[in-house]
Protein backbone atom coordinates (compact mmCIF):
# COMPACT_ATOMS: atom_id res chain seq x y z
CA UNK A 1 0.00 0.00 0.00
CA UNK A 2 1.41 3.32 -1.06
CA UNK A 3 1.42 6.52 0.86
CA UNK A 4 -0.72 5.18 3.64
CA UNK A 5 -4.02 6.20 2.13
CA UNK A 6 -5.21 9.14 4.13
CA UNK A 7 -7.21 12.19 3.61
CA UNK A 8 -4.70 14.31 1.79
CA UNK A 9 -5.97 15.03 -1.69
CA UNK A 10 -4.45 16.99 -4.48
CA UNK A 11 -6.96 19.58 -5.59
CA UNK A 12 -7.12 21.03 -9.04
CA UNK A 13 -4.85 23.95 -8.30
CA UNK A 14 -2.04 21.54 -7.55
CA UNK A 15 -1.19 22.58 -4.04
CA UNK A 16 -1.49 20.27 -1.12
CA UNK A 17 -4.78 20.58 0.64
CA UNK A 18 -4.24 20.09 4.31
CA UNK A 19 -7.07 19.10 6.52
CA UNK A 20 -6.87 22.38 8.21
CA UNK A 21 -8.80 23.11 11.28
CA UNK A 22 -7.61 26.67 11.43
CA UNK A 23 -8.70 28.78 14.26
CA UNK A 24 -11.36 30.86 12.75
CA UNK A 25 -12.51 33.76 14.79
CA UNK A 26 -15.51 35.73 13.79
CA UNK A 27 -15.91 39.00 15.56
CA UNK A 28 -18.65 41.48 15.19
CA UNK A 29 -16.99 44.87 15.07
CA UNK A 30 -19.11 47.88 14.30
CA UNK A 31 -21.41 45.74 12.19
CA UNK A 32 -18.44 44.63 10.17
CA UNK A 33 -17.51 40.99 10.40
CA UNK A 34 -13.85 40.30 10.53
CA UNK A 35 -12.38 36.85 10.30
CA UNK A 36 -8.88 36.03 11.41
CA UNK A 37 -7.42 32.82 10.18
CA UNK A 38 -4.15 31.15 10.99
CA UNK A 39 -2.21 29.65 8.10
CA UNK A 40 -1.76 25.92 8.75
CA UNK A 41 1.63 26.06 7.01
CA UNK A 42 3.45 29.01 8.46
CA UNK A 43 1.21 29.88 11.39
CA UNK A 44 0.83 33.52 10.43
CA UNK A 45 -2.53 35.08 11.10
CA UNK A 46 -4.33 37.19 8.58
CA UNK A 47 -7.78 38.52 7.78
CA UNK A 48 -9.97 36.82 5.28
CA UNK A 49 -11.45 39.02 2.63
CA UNK A 50 -15.09 38.10 2.90
CA UNK A 51 -16.48 40.41 0.22
CA UNK A 52 -19.50 38.85 -1.44
CA UNK A 53 -19.97 36.66 1.60
CA UNK A 54 -16.91 34.59 0.86
CA UNK A 55 -16.14 32.10 3.57
CA UNK A 56 -19.52 32.16 5.26
CA UNK A 57 -21.04 28.99 3.82
CA UNK A 58 -20.83 26.17 6.30
CA UNK A 59 -19.47 22.71 5.58
CA UNK A 60 -17.78 23.86 2.36
CA UNK A 61 -14.07 23.75 1.74
CA UNK A 62 -13.11 27.30 0.95
CA UNK A 63 -9.84 27.80 -0.88
CA UNK A 64 -7.49 30.37 0.52
CA UNK A 65 -3.97 31.41 -0.25
CA UNK A 66 -1.73 32.56 2.56
CA UNK A 67 -0.38 36.07 1.86
CA UNK A 68 2.75 35.26 3.89
CA UNK A 69 3.99 31.94 2.52
CA UNK A 70 1.72 31.86 -0.54
CA UNK A 71 0.68 28.28 0.04
CA UNK A 72 -2.89 27.32 -0.61
CA UNK A 73 -5.05 25.66 1.95
CA UNK A 74 -8.68 25.05 2.65
CA UNK A 75 -10.83 26.01 5.58
CA UNK A 76 -14.30 25.20 6.71
CA UNK A 77 -16.56 27.59 8.51
CA UNK A 78 -18.73 26.55 11.35
CA UNK A 79 -20.98 29.13 12.83
CA UNK A 80 -21.93 28.80 16.43
CA UNK A 81 -24.55 30.69 18.29
CA UNK A 82 -24.35 31.68 21.86
CA UNK A 83 -26.91 33.04 24.18
CA UNK A 84 -26.48 35.56 26.89
CA UNK A 85 -29.43 35.48 29.20
CA UNK A 86 -30.11 38.70 31.03
CA UNK A 87 -32.72 39.49 33.58
CA UNK A 88 -35.53 41.57 32.10
CA UNK A 89 -37.31 42.99 35.09
CA UNK A 90 -39.44 45.19 32.84
CA UNK A 91 -41.05 42.04 31.49
CA UNK A 92 -41.87 41.02 35.01
CA UNK A 93 -43.74 44.05 36.21
CA UNK A 94 -40.99 46.67 36.56
CA UNK A 95 -40.76 49.83 34.49
CA UNK A 96 -39.03 49.77 31.12
CA UNK A 97 -35.75 51.63 30.81
CA UNK A 98 -36.64 53.69 27.75
CA UNK A 99 -33.87 55.62 26.07
CA UNK A 100 -34.10 58.00 23.17
CA UNK A 101 -32.99 56.43 19.90
CA UNK A 102 -30.43 58.37 17.90
CA UNK A 103 -32.42 58.74 14.75
CA UNK A 104 -32.15 61.24 11.95
CA UNK A 105 -34.28 63.20 11.44
CA UNK A 106 -34.85 63.61 15.15
CA UNK A 107 -38.57 63.92 14.60
CA UNK A 108 -38.62 60.20 13.82
CA UNK A 109 -36.89 59.27 17.09
CA UNK A 110 -38.38 56.57 19.21
CA UNK A 111 -37.94 55.39 22.73
CA UNK A 112 -36.34 52.00 23.09
CA UNK A 113 -36.03 50.00 26.26
CA UNK A 114 -32.37 49.20 26.87
CA UNK A 115 -33.37 46.01 28.65
CA UNK A 116 -35.95 44.26 26.50
CA UNK A 117 -35.68 46.23 23.26
CA UNK A 118 -39.32 47.34 23.31
CA UNK A 119 -39.96 50.36 21.12
CA UNK A 120 -42.59 53.03 21.61
CA UNK A 121 -43.28 56.52 20.36
CA UNK A 122 -42.26 59.54 22.40
CA UNK A 123 -44.86 61.02 24.66
CA UNK A 124 -45.71 64.70 24.28
CA UNK A 125 -43.79 65.40 27.49
CA UNK A 126 -40.72 63.71 26.12
CA UNK A 127 -40.99 65.61 22.84
CA UNK A 128 -40.86 68.90 24.68
CA UNK A 129 -38.19 67.63 27.11
CA UNK A 130 -35.87 66.55 24.28
CA UNK A 131 -37.03 69.43 22.11
CA UNK A 132 -38.14 67.11 19.33
CA UNK A 133 -41.01 67.99 17.04
CA UNK A 134 -43.60 65.56 15.84
CA UNK A 135 -43.35 63.47 12.70
CA UNK A 136 -46.07 65.64 11.22
CA UNK A 137 -44.09 68.81 11.90
CA UNK A 138 -41.11 67.27 10.16
CA UNK A 139 -43.05 66.37 7.02
CA UNK A 140 -44.68 69.75 7.14
CA UNK A 141 -41.25 71.40 7.22
CA UNK A 142 -40.25 69.45 4.10
CA UNK A 143 -43.08 70.95 2.13
CA UNK A 144 -41.92 74.48 2.71
ZN1 LIG B 1 1.38 30.73 5.41
ZN1 LIG C 1 -38.19 46.79 28.75
Describe the structure in your own words.
The chain is α+β, with helices and mostly antiparallel strands. It folds into two domains: 7-80, no CATH class; 89-133, no CATH class. Helix content is 10%, strand content 22%. The chain is built from two helices and eight strands. A three-stranded antiparallel β-sheet has the order 1-2-3, with no helix packed on it. Strand 2 and strand 3 (45-47) form a beta hairpin. It is elongated and about 65 Å long. The N and C termini lie far apart (86 Å). The model is unreliable at 1-25 and 27-31 (pLDDT under 50). Residues 39, 41-42, 44, 66, 68-69, 71 line the site of one zinc ion.
Amino acid sequence: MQGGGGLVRTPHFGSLAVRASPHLEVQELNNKTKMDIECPYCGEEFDINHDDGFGYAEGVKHHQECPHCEKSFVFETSISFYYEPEKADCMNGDAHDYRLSSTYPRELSQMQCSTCGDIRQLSDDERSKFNIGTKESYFESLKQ
